[in-house]
């Protein structure tokens, strides 16, 4: 008998009325689930990139990290509401257990969002399979950007390349929000 993997549930979105860009992950990793904070693994680059754009260290307090995100006009959520997975790797998500978040509802409630940025290929693949395929006209109004995963498991892409792509697509393009 095959062992059952735990059913994992994503977090509520971090979003406000000023958000113009929505960053979408696939599903929080184990460190994030344990801490109940997005991108909690200490080697994940996610929080380091906007801090570098502001030329400041990553805030220790999660509330300050969230405030930094909002300062850039960036919202944060996951494509998947829940799935089964052993460990943290996207490759371990069990096919057929994925349930998408209500992204259409969120975007309808936040009309200033015009760009969707995917934190890695798995986030985009899940979006394409569960949302884009059945709603192509709805998503035609959005700019889509697939970025390299900020996860430490994505070691095939140099950190500098990740920083550059994320700076250009998310943080620098949102910099007018902080001026």
Unreliable segments of 5+ consecutive residues = none
Question: What is the rounded distance between the termini?
Answer: 58 Å
| Rg on CA atoms, Å | 16 Å
The ordered string of helix (H) and strand (E) elements is EEHHHEEEHEHHEH
Largest sheet: 4 strands, parallel
Structural class: alpha/beta
Strand order of the largest sheet: 3-2-6-7
General description of the model:
The strands form two sheets. This protein has a four-stranded parallel beta sheet. The protein has a three-stranded antiparallel beta sheet with strand order 1-4-5, with helices on one face. It contains seven helices and seven strands. It is α/β, with parallel strands linked by helices and 179 residues long. The mean pLDDT is 86. The protein starts with 6 loop residues before the first strand and ends in an 8-residue tail after the last helix.
Q: Main attributes?
A:
179 residues, alpha/beta, four-stranded parallel β-sheet, three-stranded antiparallel β-sheet, globular
Question: What is this structure's SSE topology?
Answer:
Elements: E1 7-9, E2 21-25, H1 30-35, H2 48-53, H3 62-71, E3 74-78, E4 80-84, E5 99-100, H4 103-109, E6 115-119, H5 121-132, H6 136-139, E7 143-147, H7 159-171
In short:
The chain is α/β, with parallel strands linked by helices and 179 residues long.
